[in-house]
Structure formats: C-alpha cells, structure tokens
TrEMBL record:
Organism: Methylomonas defluvii
Annotated signal peptide: 1-22
Lineage: superkingdom: Bacteria
Entry protein name: Uncharacterized protein
Keyword tags: Membrane, Signal, Transmembrane, Transmembrane helix
Spans through the membrane: 514-538, 544-565, 679-701, 1161-1182, 1194-1220, 1232-1255, 1288-1311
C-alpha cells in the first residue's frame, strides 16, 4: 500500500510540471476515484455549466420552454428543467395563484413554499413538470420563475407573441370589467418636470398616479413636451411611448410614479406648456436645474415658489421651482454662454536677485506659485532675459511669439514655476515683478555683493535695509548736537566738518558714536570751570577720554582703509558661498579633494524633452505624406528647439535686502535703486578714515585755531529554528490530506480554453417579412453556457432547437438576454420567431460569429461587413413600415442618446481620442455613422471606416466605445457639430506646451480638467463651430550647456605644478564639449561622475563627452613650472561662460607672500593697510615732543611690533610716553612718586620683553602678512568669481623667497638694538630726574599746651 501511495504522489506531483489544465475523471488514478465526491463535497457547482468566458460564473438549474395555456377560469403549464445538482426549482404562480395537481415526469410531487413562491426540490437530472391554476377570472399578472427561458403563451386559445414581462411577472391585458366597476375607477394625476439646462436641454417628467378601481389601460397624451425625443422610461407599471409622444400605461390600484427622460435636439430660449385639456392637470410644477458652466440664464416671466411646500419630489426641492398653467411658457434670458472671461489668475511671486560683482546686471531666480485660470502663457517683460524655466520640476522650452514676447506655455492650473533669468539693463530701475502678469503677492530678496552699497530704495511697501532707512530721529539728534557742540567750541566751519564726518561714519560697523559727545562735554566743561581740584580731576578724565577715543578710532580707521581696499573684509566671518557651499577652505588639499568628491551637488531634474523627441521620432513609424504636414513650423522636429539650461545661478550670499509689497503688483510697477559703486565706496571709506583722523586730531588739540542607537529586538534574540510538529498517525490504506487537497485543486482547475471556450463559427440569417430564422454552428469545448443573438425588447425567439431537438436548457437574464447550455462538441442551433411591433430593431451579438450570411426579404440589415464579418450587433429596418395592429403595451426601442467626445492631443504628433458614451442610463443598441475630422485617420484596428465616416456599432448594454486616430497638422482647424439629433458633441483640446492655441467661436465651458490640467472644452449645439489657430512659437536661442560650478585647485611645487579642475555641467543635449588647457599642460586623468574615462588631450584641447542632464567632471594635469616672483594660476578656456568659479592655491612653504591679484572676492594682504595707518600714526606721534623719536623712528618701531599683537604696540608706545611724562611731571608726594617709579620699572621690563619677542619672531618665525578674506590663510588662498567668460579668471600672487624676509628682519633687529640703547639712555635720565626714590618725611610731634 505504501508503494501505491508513492505512485499516486508521483502522478500528482508531476502534474504541475505539465501545462495546467482541469483533471478529467478518466485521468484520475483508480485509487483516488472513490475520493472525488469526498473532496468536492463543498463544491456544489462543480459539474454545472459555466459562462463561456468566465469559469467562476456557473448555473446549475436550466429551464427549457415554459408552455402556458390560460383560460378565463383556469390555466395550465408545462415546463422542462435540466438540473446539474440537487437544488430548488421555482414554479409559475405565487401564494395568490398556487399551482395545483403538479406532476413531475407524470408522477405527483409535493410542492412547498420557498421565499414566497411554489417550489420543488430535485436531485440532478432532467424533469418535465406540469400543473394547473384555478381562478374566478383571468388575473392581471402571473408570477414567473426567476430563471425562465422561452415562454410560449396562449390566452383563451389564442397565441400571444412577445408577452409583456416585467418585475418577474407576466402581465395579462384583461378587459372584462363591467360597467359598475368602471364607475368606481378613479385617477389622480400630478405632473412634475425637471428642466436640465444641459446640451442638449433635457426634461425629466414625473407622473404621480393615485389609482383606484379595476386595472385598465390609460393614455397620457402630454407626458412629453412637443418636439422632445424620449431617452428613457422608468415605470413600475407596463407602459410604452408611441411615435407621437403619448404614454400608454396599464394601471392598477395603488400609488405609482413614472419617470420619462427626454431631450430636445436644438437650442431653446423657451419651453411651452401647449396643453388645453380639462382632463390634464391645470397646473404643473417645473424645477429648473441650471448649469452655469454651459450658460447663465434667467427665468423672465415666471415667479419662483417654495418647492418644499409642495409635493415636488424631495430630490428636486433644492432647485428653483415654478408653477406653470396650461398655455404658459418658461422663457430663458441668456446672460452668458460658457465661460469666456474666467476669473483672474491667483499667483504669488518670490524673487531672488543677485547683483553682479562687476555691476553688469542681475541674475534673477523667480518662483511663481498659485493657480492659473486664463491666458495659459507666462510672458516676461522685455528687460528680463529668460534663461531657463522649470514647471513642476520639468524644464520647459522658452518660446517667442510673433509680437516678440518671450515666455512659456502653461498647461496646469496649479502652477509651480522656477525661472532663471538675466537683467542687463539699467541697474537703478527694475520691474517689480518682471512678468506680464498681475501677482497677488510679491516678495523679493536682493543680494548685494562686496564693494556695493544700497543707499536708498523706492517703489516698495516695506522699509528695506538701506543706508537711508537706517537713520532714526535719535541718530539725527545726536549727530546734530555733536556738530553744534563742535561749532560752538571752535568755529562754524569745524561744526560743518564734524556734521559731514559724523554723517558719513555714523552707521558704519564699529564706528565710534557716543564717545564724541563725551569728549566734547569734557572739553566744554574745562573751558568754563575755574582751576581747582575738580578741574584737575576733570583734566585727568579728559586724558582718559582721549585715550578711549584713540582706542576706538584707530581700529576703525584701519578697518575702513582695509574695507576700502578689500571689500570682502566688511563681513569677515561670513563665507561668500552660503548656497551649495563647498568644503572648508582651511582643510588640507588632499582632504579637500576627497571632500569635494563626496559633496558633489545633487543631480537636478534632468531635461527630458529633447531626448524624448528623438526617441519618439525614431520609435514611431513614419506617417504618410498627408499626415506629416508641410508647414515648417509644424514639422515634428524643430532643429532650433533646444531646451535652454539658463545662465546658472550664483551660489553666493552677502548683504541681503528684503523687498515686499502689500497689495497686488502688475508689470508696470517699478522700483528705483540707488547704489554706491565699488570705486565710490572705496573713496568713501578712505574719506571716512581721513575725516575721523582729522576730527580726532582736532579734539586732541593737535590742530590749532574726532542618529539614534537601537537595541536588537528581543524577539530577534529569541528566534530559534522552528521545530517540526509531531507526526500524526498515518494510515497506509488512505491518501493523506495534502494528496486529497492536490486532487481537489486539479479537479477545480479552470480549463485551458478560457476565455474562448465557445465560438460561433457561422451564422446564417433568413429574414422574412414576418419571421426571422437564425441558424448557428456552435463549437463548445466544455459543458458551458453561451449567449444567443436575442434580446427581449428587440427580438426574441419563439422556438429554439439544438441538433434537431427542442432546447432543454435556456435561461433568460434580467437584461433580456438569452443563454443556452450545451455539451462539448459541435452543435447546430436554430432560432425562429416573429418580430416585435416595431419597424426598426437591433439584434445584439454578444458572441460575434466568425462568419455571417444574410438573406433578407422586406428588411434592410446593417452591421454586416466585408468577408462575412459583423460588429457587436445588427440593425434591422423594415423597408415598408407595417401599419397593422400592434401590442400597445410592448415598448419599442427608444432612440439611442449618445454623446460624442473628441479630445485633440496636439503634441509632437497630433492624434484624436474619440469616445462615444450613452447617456441617461440608457444602454440600448447604437448604430451610427460618425463623420471624421478633416485630416483624421483612424488607427484603432477594431474600428471600421467607410466613406470618411466611422461605423459606430455598440451592443445593448455597452456604455462606451473609444478609438484613436491620427490627425494631420494644420495651422487652422475647424470643429463643427453635425446638424443631427442622433448625438451631441463635446470637444476638448489637450495642447502640448510646444504649441500656442487661439480659439474663436463659441465660448469655452471648462478651462481645466479635474486634475487642474488646462483642457479647454466646448459643448456646441448642432451646427455650431470653433475655429482653432495653432502655431508653434519660435524657440528662443539660449544656452544648451551651463557650467554651474568650477573649482580650480593649484598646488605649486619646486619643479612642477599640479592642477585639478572640477566642473559641474548641465546640458540639454549630448555631444562633445572642448576644454582648452594651458600650454605645456600634461593631462593625467579625466573622471566623469566618479568613473575614470580613457580620454586623451589633443594638443591643448580635451574633448569631453556630454550627456543630457547633470554631470560632474574632474580633470587632473601637471605643468613643468618653477615658482618665481609672479605666480599665476593656469589660464583655462572652458568654451562657454560659467558661474561660481572658485580658485584655490596652496602656498609653497619657502615663499614670502607680498600681494595678490585676481577675482575681487579673494585673499587680502592686510599688512599694507596696516602700514599705511602706522605711517599716519607715526607722523602724528612725531609731532609730539614728549619723546625724542622722529617720524621714521616711530614708523620702524611700529613695523617691527606689527608682527605681534596690537597690545604689544600700545604697551611700547605707552612706555615711551610714560617716560617722557615722568621727566616733566613727576609726582611731588613721596608715595605717588614711588608708586610711579615702580610702575615705570615694570612697564620698562614688559616693553623690553615685547621688543625681544618681536626680534625673535622676525628672525625665526614666519611673516604674519595678515591674510584674510574668503576664508583664506597664509598657506591656502581662495578666490571666488560669480560670473566668468569662456576663460576662467586668473589669480596672481607676488612673493619672494623667505630668505629676503629674514634679511630684512635682521637689519631691523640691528637697528632696533642700536636705537634701543639711545632710548634707554634717555629713559634713564627721565626715570632718575628728581631722584630714584623718595623717603617719607617723619611727622613732628607738636607739644600740647598746658592749661
């Protein structure tokens, strides 16, 4: 037995290796066949036929034909059923009309009630069921089983064709009421209409009926308004609309509501209630549903009433309601059609402007957010040169219209735009917005480079940080008081001089302010107070104030001279590159190179449009000549249309000035800016230092007449290998559970033939004047159900036979379709039946035949194509309309109500998407001939075209049909609605930003779709048209390659120079870009995006491969070169302009740096400015006779001390002044004298120590040239340039061998030693004048007098 189980496992285990298919019973191994019913116990529908294309939908009970013979007092029925599993079968009738003497296969069976219906319970098999009914009179309706196929009805021995079936019941037309009953018949009718102002105009009419008496047929002649076309009829009672718009209803007692949906084919300005009938309600209530997007109307002649106080349907009570009497009209006054003037754009602008270092213009970055609802193009003002525009992160082509305006096309309502631009017009006058738009809010940030100063701004609403706006009333008061004091103390001329000096320096950084008032106050008091002890103390305070004035003004003057020469020192602690900042300038070269590679800029969104253009062009097949278009502006590829990469944005930030406006700002708003240029600012700083020096000297009296750690999860630490569960007891004679599960899975597998398990190979139609016969050759692979070409409201067979015998398994679905269950094989199915009482109907083909043939007599059949092919339905039209008697309550098919939506997609290729949609919930068959647009060619393979028209064939139940077409390019395109009541049209234009669209004709009703995309939509009435003018704006010539950043790192050596160049490049198209290296340069390596490239130089040129997008390129080369007095960085030609150029030079250790040249924002050698100040200070000190030092001696002394801290210089100078003061003003009191001597001795020692340190520093240390600016140091020099031409800027340094510095410092040390001996001799004389030390005199005791 174990071997048997193993073989079973082997058979079922190998099954998945084969193609998956359902397991037939003959394929089941013999030991497992007894288990088939076991494993399928819960699969009750296993053997039931399935829908031919859906294995999950199955039906297990299939009825055959139901024969009903109904008489005035009794009736009988015979039904055939095929049951594939035990199930309940419903019988005709209900609890009111219960079937009697029911027999099954001629044997009496018990009938029970199930769900309110008589039912039988059967096992699988075929059954013939018969029964009888008994009643006093023929009932109005007879309930039918839910699953019923063909129904053959005879009433009083008269066959009835197309018996009315509705709501699961068979409705019988009884006309046997007597006169007495007729007198009890009552009908209360209320009429409500909802007018929907759509295109086309629609009216929903609701008839509320309250019926009493017998069931009867009633005619409602005014249910439809004149000339309206019915669309849908929803009635709980049997009802139909005839050709004249009259409604016929089979009523019975109760309350009923009937809805009729209708449309009018033309545009209306009024609706008339043309009724003059006393049997019709004298008043109707009309609710008006306006659609303002289509048109805005006013109801002129009627007065609105409160619908909530009427019987108006609750769902309509929120609408304006009007009461119309017979003969009245509802007139429409059209105020506006569509939306010709949409609301203004709601946009916000945030601008960032960078003034060029050289003052040649501004670089502008604009960020525009908000919503657009009109214009759909953003044009810049003429002075704004657009360089690059991105919309929602995607680069856009900048184009120019015929009027010269440059801008971009916008296609989304919610806009997120970033634009990089240049302004090279007048620096002092700018447009506030820069765009030909009105902005609701504008904010701007103006970045001013070093060396420039903003004096004043006008044309803004805030108070920007300019020099003029920094003045307060307190500042003015203090300056005027100080100037008046100077004028009173000396002269009005000196007062004016003080006013000028203080005005110029008052708002400078670290400028002395209140000290002036302090000194002036002391000087004034000394003039008016008499001599005395207070006067003497005040004199000491004056001296201390003078000292404080010197300590404040001397550094200020030094700073002003430095800033005048080196503007980058104005903000010494602020780096210039605040955005995308590079690595620290103080890092060693090797470390910086590594950091530069690690901190490369993140790639920006790639520019995809051009690459898309080329790929789409190469991928798509070439169109015919008629499709391509001949105009040059309409060709698929424009060689001049290159996406611009822009001027590149500066990465620096220095002085920021915030500008803002409180209200809306348009393109005419101007701002005025007043600047001081770098040259004028340099003169100003020099003047400030000079004026302060003169004012200080005047006040001193020198001028006769101032990640997170986490601990491992505890569950992770506790994870252990899973242990196998204990084996359950197995029985060798039974298959185990996995085997049975696999058997079940195999049995339930869907057949391989899905979804095409059935085909109709051939269909032949014999169309006779009164009867239609259809013969089908049906192929089936499984037991399944197939749909037959029939529909209850169109045409339904009275007889169906399969292979010569009556069909035993037919089901009629709720939608009126008919399904047949067949066994595997080829079957001949014959269907025959009479026509409904209509002259035109459609025959749906849910399973289209592969071939069809038609023989027609008296009918025209449409929908049959060449080679015997058919569409989803056939349409039958009687050649001579039948005027014979008809079943009044059998509703003929209502005209189809469809909308044709054409969406034009105007991109690189033009195409049209056409969508046909049924409206108002009606899903009746549609057969139309829809004209194509001029130049339109259908590309969808399943759509048929004949004589320039699309043959639209939609089966019943099909809601939409869609196809694609190609459209020939043209500069003028006219859309005109067909003058037909068969459909209404909707036009939309989806226009790519490469096109500019202008439309005239009817107004646009919607400008955007649900996602905010610009999608103009028109809804025309029949015959209306729209003219579209489509042009391709000329692309603006601009840069297609931008170098956003360059870094040149130079490392000079004793015999060669090593250079590294890093380039960050953006490009909109691929190709080769040449870079020219300096002469004698020897290329070492080229790296692109971190990958080494086998690129070699050709002469001085290096050709770099560029791909669309962002890339970082690193070039390394060496040049044989020895350092000299002048050391220049290499001249590199990048071939295009660039921004954000940085130069870094590593200073050789054995060189003495004297001066630097190059970009303005670079290192500064501050020692020379200090020497100028020291020379001025030495000149002033030489004027004082308190020491024997001359001007040149003071200058040499201060030069040597400049290598130390400034406190050392103050110490030595103070020591010399203290000795001179000691010689002439020695204290008289011994205590003060001795304290002065001790202080002088200590001061002498400290001064001599400072001089000794200065000598040592000069002879052994490195020169402190006070290198500052752009985070430079004595060993690492950094330059930054905001904008460059094709050639990178060149930096130059002047240097000497360090030995030269040593020799000079040796000479200074020798001079210092000789001079110091003379100064010490003079100092000793000063120190000993009046004695070295004074003893305190003993106090003499005075004898007390005796009394």
């Amino acid at each position: 037995m174990g071997r048997l189980v193993f073989m079973l496992w082997l058979l079922l285990g190998l099954a998945p290796l084969q193609t998956a298919r359902a397991l037939d019973m003959q394929d089941v191994p013999e030991p497992l066949k007894p288990w088939v019913n076991w494993v399928l116990a819960d699969e009750t529908q296993y053997r039931c036929p399935f829908i031919f294309d859906d294995f999950q939908q199955k039906h297990c009970a299939w009825p055959g034909a139901l024969h009903l013979n109904l008489q005035a007092k009794h009736g009988s029925f015979v039904a055939e059923w095929t049951v594939y599993r035990q199930d309940w079968i419903s019988l005709p009738g209900d609890t009111q009309h219960w079937p009697q003497t029911v027999t099954v296969n001629k044997q009496t069976q018990p009938v029970v009630e199930k769900d309110g219906k008589p039912a039988l319970y059967f096992p699988a098999g075929r059954y013939q069921i018969s029964g009888e009914f008994f009643w006093e009179s023929l009932p109005e309706q007879l309930a039918l089983p839910e699953a019923s196929g063909l129904i053959q009805l005879s009433v009083n021995d008269k066959p009835v064709a197309y018996p009315p079936i509705k709501q699961g019941a068979l409705w019988l037309n009884t006309e046997n009421a007597d006169t007495a009953d007729r007198e009890q018949d009552r009908l209360d009718l209320q009429v409500f209409r909802q007018v929907q102002d759509e295109v086309p105009l629609q009216v929903i009419t609701r008839l509320d009926l309250e019926v009493s008496g017998k069931a009867r047929e009633i005619e409602f002649p005014y249910a439809l308004l004149p000339n309206f076309i019915p669309v849908a009829l929803n009635s709980p009672l049997p009802a139909r609309l005839d050709g004249n718009g009259r409604l016929l209803v089979q009523v019975r007692p109760g309350r009923w509501s009937i809805d009729i949906h209708a449309r009018h084919p033309q545009a209306l300005t009024q609706l008339d209630l043309t009724v003059k009938d006393e049997n019709w309600p004298a008043e109707e209530l009309w609710a008006f549903q306006a659609v303002p997007a289509l048109r805005l109307v006013e109801i002129e002649n009627l007065t609105a009433i409160d619908g909530s106080q009427t019987n108006l349907p609750a769902e309509w009570q929120h609408l304006p309601t009007y009461q119309l009497k017979q003969g009245e009209s509802m007139k429409f006054k059209v105020v506006r059609r569509g939306d010709p003037e949409p609301e203004p754009n709601q946009l916000k602008l945030k601008r960032t402007l960078w003034l060029d270092f050289e003052g040649g213009g501004y670089t502008v970055s604009d960020n525009i957010t908000g919503t657009m609802s009109r214009d759909w193009r953003l044009n810049a003002v003429p002075e704004l040169g657009l360089g690059q525009v991105q919309l929602d992160g995607q680069s856009q082509l900048i184009t120019q219209l015929a009027d010269g305006n440059q801008g971009v096309e916008v296609r989304r309502g919610a806009i997120q735009l970033n634009a990089d631009s240049r302004i090279e017009a007048d620096l002092s006058s700018l447009s506030a917005s820069g765009w030909q738009q009105r902005f609701q809010q504008v904010q701007a940030e103006l970045n001013i480079p070093p060396g420039w100063r903003l004096l004043a701004v006008s044309g803004v609403d805030n108070v920007p940080n300019s020099w003029l706006n920094r003045w307060t009333l307190l500042d003015l008061f203090l300056v005027l008081i100080a100037a008046l004091a100077v004028g009173r103390l000396w002269s009005p001329q000196w007062g004016a001089f003080a006013l000028l000096s203080l005005t110029l320096i008052w708002h400078e950084a670290d400028a002395p302010r209140l000290i002036w008032l302090n000194v002036l106050a002391v000087l004034a008091l000394l003039r008016v107070l008499p001599a005395g002890s207070f006067w003497q103390w005040l004199k000491w305070y004056r001296n201390a104030s003078w000292l404080a004035l010197l300590m404040l003004t001397i550094p200020f003057m030094i700073a002003q001279i430095r800033i005048g020469i080196y503007p980058q020192l104005e903000l010494p602690r602020q780096p210039i590159q605040r955005l995308h900042s590079m690595v620290s300038a103080a890092a060693p070269m090797a470390m910086q190179v590594e950091q530069m590679a690690d901190s490369a800029m993140a790639p920006e969104p790639e520019i995809r449009e051009l690459a898309k253009t080329e790929s789409e062009y190469s991928a798509k097949p070439k169109m015919s000549r008629a499709y391509g278009g001949s105009a040059a502006s309409l060709q698929r590829i424009d060689p001049d249309a290159n996406l611009q990469t822009g001027p590149g944005l500066p990465h620096w930030g220095w002085q920021r000035v915030e500008l803002s406006w409180n209200g809306a700002v348009d393109s005419n708003q101007q701002i005025r800016l007043w600047y001081l240029s770098p040259f004028m600012l340099m003169l100003l700083h020099f003047a400030q230092a000079l004026l302060v020096a003169v004012l200080v000297l005047k006040m001193l009296g020198a001028i006769a007449t101032n990640w997170r750690l986490s601990l491992p999860s505890l569950t992770c630490l506790l994870l252990l290998p899973l242990l196998m569960a204990p084996n359950q007891k197995a029985y060798a004679d039974l298959p185990d559970a996995p085997m049975l599960e696999q058997l079940k899975t195999r049995l339930l597998q869907a057949p391989q033939c899905l979804p095409n398990c059935a085909q109709i190979a051939d269909m032949q139609l014999l169309v006779k004047p009164e009867v239609l016969r259809i013969e089908l050759q049906l192929h089936a692979q499984q037991d399944l159900a197939v749909p037959l070409p029939a529909q209850l409201e169109q045409w339904f067979p009275e007889q169906v036979s399969v292979d010569g015998g009556e069909a035993q398994a037919l089901i009629r679905q709720d939608d009126g379709s008919l399904w047949l269950a067949v066994s595997p094989g080829v079957h001949k199915v014959t269907m025959q039946g009479r026509y409904t009482a209509q002259d035109k109907f459609s025959l749906p083909l849910p399973l289209p035949p592969q071939h069809a043939g038609v023989i027609a007599d008296g009918w025209r059949v449409d929908g049959l194509y060449e080679d015997g092919k058919v569409g989803p339905q056939l349409e039958f039209s009687r050649l001579q309309p039948d005027s014979g008697p008809r079943n009044k309550l059998q509703q003929t098919a209502l005209p189809a109500f469809v909308r044709v939506e054409r969406t034009l997609h105007l991109g690189l290729d033009w195409r049209v998407t056409t969508r046909v949609e049924q409206l108002a919930g009606a899903l009746s068959p549609v057969l139309l001939e829809l004209p194509l647009l001029p130049g339109e060619a259908v590309t969808s393979p399943q759509v048929r075209v004949k004589d320039g028209k699309v043959l639209v064939n939609m089966a019943a139940g099909q809601a939409t049909l869609e196809w694609e077409s190609a459209l020939a390019k043209t500069e003028q395109l006219t859309l005109q609605a067909a003058d037909t009541p068969q459909w209404t049209e909707v036009w939309r234009a989806d226009v790519s930003p490469i096109w500019h669209l202008q439309a005239d004709g009817i107004a646009v009703v919607h400008h955007q779709d649900g996602q905010g995309q610009w999608l103009p939509e028109w809804r025309p009435w029949p015959g209306e048209k729209v003219n579209l003018t489509i042009g391709r704006p000329q692309a603006v010539a601009g840069s297609t390659l931008t170098i956003d950043r360059s870094e040149l790192a130079v490392k000079p050596g004793q015999r060669s120079e090593t250079v590294e160049l890093i380039l960050s490049i953006r490009s909109s198209k691929g190709g080769q870009h040449p870079v020219k290296l300096p002469e004698l340069a020897e290329l070492q390596s080229v790296t692109i995006d971190g990958v080494s490239q086998p690129i070699r130089q050709q002469g001085a040129a290096v050709s770099l491969p560029i791909h669309p997008g962002t890339q970082q390129i690193v070039l390394n080369w060496q040049t044989a070169k020895e350092p000299g007095v002048l050391l220049r960085t290499p001249l590199v030609d990048l071939g295009v302009t660039s921004v954000n150029s940085r130069i870094q030079l590593l200073m050789p250790q054995q060189r003495w740096l004297l001066w630097t040249f190059g970009p303005k924002f670079g290192p500064a050698v501050l020692i020379w400015g200090l020497l100028i100040v020291l020379a001025l200070l030495a000149f002033g000190l030489g004027k004082l006779n308190i020491t024997p030092l001359r001007h040149w001696q003071w200058f040499l002394l201060l030069i040597g001390l400049s290598q130390l801290h400034i406190a050392a210089a103050f110490l030595v100078v103070g020591w010399l002044f203290a000795l001179g003061f000691r010689a002439h003003h020695a204290p008289q009191r011994p205590r003060w004298f001795n304290l002065a001597q001790i202080g002088l001795a200590g001061l002498t020692l400290l001064s001599l120590l400072s001089i000794a340190i200065a000598v040592e520093q000069g002879l052994l240390g490195n020169p402190d040239m006070q290198i500052a600016g752009n985070q430079s140091s004595a060993t690492l020099l950094n330059w930054y340039q905001d904008r460059n031409g094709p050639q990178l800027a060149v930096a130059t340094i002047v240097s000497l061998p360090l030995l030269a510095y040593r020799i000079l410092m040796l000479a200074w040390s020798l001079w210092m030693a000789a001079a110091l001996l003379n100064w010490l001799r003079w100092g000793w004389n000063c120190f000993t004048g009046g004695g070295l030390w004074k003893k305190s005199q003993p106090q003499v005791a005075v004898p007390k007098s005796e009394a």
